[in-house]
Design brief:
Layout: H1 2-30, H2 65-102, H3 107-112, H4 115-128, H5 135-149, H6 164-173, H7 181-192, H8 194-197, H9 202-205
Helix pairs in contact: 1-2, 4-5, 6-7
Amino acid sequence: MQGLVDWLLDFKTDGFEQSFEKAKEKAEFLGIDLDFGFNYRITRNKRPRRFEQNEGENQQATAPLANNLQKFKAEFFDEVLEKIIVEFKGTFDSIKMIQSEFGFMWGQVLESSNISHLTLKAKELATKYQDDLDQSAMLQEITFLKSAVKPFIEDGKTLKASTALEVLDILTMNGLHQQFNNIHTALRIFLTIPVSVASNERAFSKH
């Protein structure tokens, strides 16, 4: 996600010129006037209001190509890219926040963190989800999670590279979900949260 946001920011800065050159080559190949379409557009025999001209005004293109491109870049290209970047950043920030809350149960954080840090994160999570998690039990579970999961990591992989789903599978498939009931529940909560993070896809994702 971060790589995509960075790419979009770079594309907003340099992408228009690159896109224009590609469009120019394609237009020349197809014999299309580069200035065509800026001054009017007919849709279902009716021009959209933003393309309407005052009565008696010549309907031929009156603005130089450079001005048309500047207007197109400012009113369409920049606006669209900015909207996309804002939407991605909003979603990414939500995901990062959720990751910071749950991420102590797998991967690099579980591998490298000391018990004090793990118990602190477990306490914070259990407090937030107090209807689903028992705090005292979860503090006990997180103390032994690392040593319980390590023996079941697949050959060639490390605990540092583990994912939430892999830890959940290890607990489930090896009969450890009862001993780590709260960790098991927390991982299931985490893995279902993305369904409701992307609000524009929420209805689709739940079906």
